[in-house]
Design brief:
- The protein is α/β, with parallel strands linked by helices and 281 residues long.
- It has one domain: Alpha-Beta Barrel (TIM Barrel), CATH 3.20.20.
- The strands form 2 sheets. An 8-stranded parallel β-barrel has the order 1-2-3-4-7-8-9-10, surrounded by 4 helices. Strands 5-6 form a two-stranded antiparallel sheet.
- Strand 8, helix 7 and strand 9 form a beta-alpha-beta unit.
- Helix 2 runs parallel beside helix 3 and helix 3 packs across helix 5.
- The protein is globular, with a radius of gyration of 18 Å.
Length: 281
């Protein structure tokens, strides 16, 4: 099991290019960004899906666009894989998003990972004209439309939420047939979405994941990676259970802060993974 890091790239924290260089210099292979275009001031949707959850952290409303952050990070590194963790696809124009993904992948020589999700903030979705009740269906249709754009010279698509007839959109991604699609989420139907159009499942750390990994691999007719987001840096038992279950990668959240704070957290991540790898098989 390998490890990477995830980050809310805020304007008052370590910048995307500097963070990416730091992460690569320290030997890490993956860096993923969070996305929120905005946080509605009158938000009613509870964070983490339940009443009584902690207050929403300030960083959610202070985040750079993840595709812009990715451009800086990929331009500042040579081998680091960079991606969205997650892009809120149902709130985005799929033709523009397909262009952004293809551009980043092409310019970086094939180092972009496309983590996606439907989102949780209903007021944010509504401000984008997205009906929260149809966001899962919309996300799936947008992904199918983007795959057509990435893989066909003259692409057409006829759907409920997006339709276009005979378009040219180049360059195509370097990775074939397209960059890996990591499907985020932990709801009751998430494995259906992973099996339909994903290359990996990317759930948040929490209970029930190991049992669902077994279900996913029993149902899958192709290799599908599992990437656990928000792994607990201080819980070796949980990390060991993920490794034993065949999790391919865990991602640790870094604080949105200046270099000294980020360096300290990277020290903790690296010490934890070293200890995990030194444990007997």
């Amino acid at each position: 099991m390998d490890a990477g890091v995830a980050y809310f790239p805020t304007h008052d924290g370590l910048g995307p290019a500097e963070l990416a260089r730091t992460v690569e210099e320290r030997g890490h292979r993956w860096l993923m960004w969070a996305e929120h275009t905005h946080i509605p001031a009158a938000r009613k949707t509870p964070w983490r899906g339940e009443q009584g959850a902690p207050p929403l952290p300030r960083k959610y409303a202070h985040t750079y666009d993840p595709f812009v952050a990715s451009a800086y990070a990929l331009g500042a590194t040579k081998a680091l894989r960079v991606g969205t963790g997650i892009a809120l696809v149902a709130q985005r124009d799929p033709i523009i998003t397909a262009k952004e993904v293809a551009s980043l992948d092409h310019l970086s020589g094939g180092r972009f990972d496309f983590g996606i999700g439907a989102g949780w903030n209903r007021e944010e979705m509504a401000n984008h004209g997205t009906d929260p009740r149809t966001r899962m269906k919309r996300m799936g249709e947008y992904v199918r439309a983007m795959k057509v754009i990435w893989t066909q010279h003259e692409a057409s698509f006829d759907g409920e939420f997006i339709s276009f007839d005979r378009i040219w959109s180049d360059p195509k991604p370097i990775q074939r047939p397209h960059p890996p699609i990591l499907v985020g989420g932990g709801g009751p139907t998430v494995l259906d979405r992973v099996l339909e159009y994903g290359d990996a499942w990317m759930p948040n750390h929490g209970p029930g994941i190991i049992e669902r990994i077994t279900e996913l691999r029993e149902r899958a007719d192709r290799p599908i990676d599992v990437v656990v987001m928000g792994a607990p840096v201080d819980d070796l038992e949980a990390l060991e259970s993920y490794a034993e279950a065949g999790v391919d990668r865990v991602l640790f959240w870094l604080p949105s802060a200046r270099r000294s704070v980020v360096d300290r957290e990277l020290d903790r991540v690296e010490a934890t993974m070293a200890e995990l790898h030194d444990r007997p098989v």
